[in-house]
Amino acid sequence: MATKDYIIAPSILSADFSRLGEEVNSVLKAGADWIHFDVMDNHYVPNLTIGPMVCQSLRDYGITAPIDVHLMVKPVDQLIKSFSKAGATYITFHPEASDDVDRSLDLIKDNGCKAGLVLNPDISIEVLDSFLDKLDMILLMSVFPGFGGQEFIDSVLDKVTKMRSIINKNNLKTRLEIDGGIKLENIREVADAGADTFVSGSAIFGEPDYSEIIQKMRDSLKVE
Ligand code: DX5
Ligand code: ZN
Q1: Of the four, 68, 129, 149, 158, which is 20 to 30 A from 59 by CA?
Q2: How close is the Cα of 81 to the center of ligand 1, in Å?
């Protein structure tokens, strides 16, 4: 895959929330493609983060890059509507958090956003079978959701490989995103397994120089 097809999406979960607008500007200026926006409700996951008002604030602040909203909430439909109005580009949710996955996917698309499903590390990819042609993105979690800074779960690599072959076999344009524990040391291996979209939180925001770390990630994706 050509390097330009890879997307790096820093997760603002690890940004300094007291200066979020500046942080988002800096990481985009440093070469990030998208902003990954983690929404947690203290119900579906045991943590509480940010909602549609913060997404809207980033748009009002002048952020034009794609915002990739990862809903870790239950239920999902009301927030799908709010986030689509607040400027989300992609909206992804966990299938077990919706009582009608088809309806929730349609809701995302009807509101003008791109739609995706997210699978936790212990959920098998067969769950996606009946939704494949509706998905702009498939997000495979490589940690259990809830917190940044966790270790990448190696067994997910096999799922990435299998998912990539299903996407290719069906000639789908679906992006294959990976989220959790992505860092310079493993991004290439995950790309080789078939992911094309990389969420990375602590490994980017934990560095003093965002340009340097993003450039190093791109270089490692480029190596023959
Ligand atoms: C985890 C979130 C991730 C997280 C990634 O629940 O969905 O997006 O912020 O953070 P790192 O890259 O630090 O694992
Ligand atoms: Zn996420």
Answers
A1: 149
A2: 23
